[in-house]
Write a structure and sequence with these properties.
84% helix, elongated, mainly alpha
């Protein structure tokens, strides 16, 4: 599969959308730093608004529409999942905690045994 087959060519309208979104983001960043004497809250809110507008413009492109479809399908799949109950989660956490505790005691005893053996060998 060549790269041309994997990535379809952008249409003229999509190229314009990408260009407009890129220009909008650049202007938003420039404005953020140009208005450095203003309160940071207003600058951040303006930047968030510009990013949201750029995201909306990009969501209208072919890639954006495919991404939106993928996200809708993913959401439908997540709804089909069966989640563990609270009791199952607590039981699993308890088993993990006990296993970690047993392993910690085992490693501590092994460390003590090896320390004793090394001390006995070295005198």
């Amino acid at each position: 599969m060549t790269s041309e087959q994997a990535q379809p060519r952008l249409s003229q309208a999509d190229m314009l959308r990408w260009g407009a979104a890129s220009l909008l983001l650049a202007l938003g960043l420039a404005g953020f730093y140009y208005f450095a004497d203003q309160a940071i809250l207003y600058r951040v809110l303006g930047l968030v608004a510009v990013v949201a507008l750029a995201a909306y413009i990009l969501s209208q492109s072919a890639h954006g529409l495919r991404l939106r479809g993928f996200m809708q399908e993913s959401r439908a799949e997540v709804r089909k999942m069966v989640w563990a109950t609270r009791a199952e989660t607590l039981q699993t956490a308890l088993v993990v905690f006990i296993a970690v505790l047993v392993m910690a005691v085992f490693l501590w005893l092994l460390d003590r045994l090896l320390s004793w053996a090394v001390a006995l060998l070295l005198g």
